[in-house]
Amino acid sequence: MQSDDGSRSNEMEKATAFIIVEIIEYVPGSVVIKTILKKRTGNVSAVSVDSDGELEEKASPFDIFIQIIEGRTEIFIEDDVLHLETGQSVIIPAHSRNSFKAGHRFKMISTVIKSGYEEVS
């Protein structure tokens, strides 16, 4: 894919329809991340996690919106555990420790907004 200035981009092609669960495949024992949009102010990614896959604990300085688009998973946010399945979403608060445990294959959309925090009181 090329951007308007002719450089290569990892983003999806704009103004082209796609089915989100079909743009990313499962890879045995792996986590796969495909960038949908990536800007200085945030990004949107599609993520697939195989049944033995795990997203290790981390914390982001920004809120993260997660939507499960296929399958189910356990999301650990600080000391809480949420069981999410297809169609369910959660917002992981900024600076919160979080991790994912598959147990089953799943796909999700992860959206991070990096601007606007200074405007919120």
From TrEMBL:
SUPFAM superfamilies: RmlC-like cupins. It comes from Natronogracilivirga saccharolytica. This is Cupin domain-containing protein. Signal peptide: none annotated. InterPro entries: RmlC-like_jellyroll (IPR014710), RmlC_Cupin_sf (IPR011051). Gene3D superfamilies: Jelly Rolls.
